[in-house]
Automatic annotation (TrEMBL):
This is Endonuclease/exonuclease/phosphatase domain-containing protein. It comes from the Eukaryota. It comes from Solenopsis invicta.
Length: 76
């Protein structure tokens, strides 16, 4: 679809990677992939999960565990 191609083009242009999930939005008549996680480096994503939560406005819960460190500034 045009939307999928636009997302892939955006990611390619900005050197981003799409975390692979299956369809994330479900209705009685359709299933679509409208929720996404993007990372700048695939090695940052340690794991990713998708959980069906039908009571949560037809969306699945998606999560990703990242491997990244944050340098904190010392207190003033």
């Amino acid at each position: 679809s045009h939307d999928a191609a636009s997302l892939r083009n955006f990611c390619q242009s900005n050197r981003l990677h799409i975390i692979p999930y299956s369809n994330t939005h479900h209705t009685a008549t359709s299933h679509s992939r409208i929720d996404h996680c993007l990372v700048s480096n695939r090695s940052f994503a340690l794991s990713h999960y998708q959980h069906a939560l039908p009571f949560l406005s037809c969306h699945d819960l998606i999560e990703v565990t990242l491997n990244c460190n944050f340098n904190r500034l010392p207190p003033r």
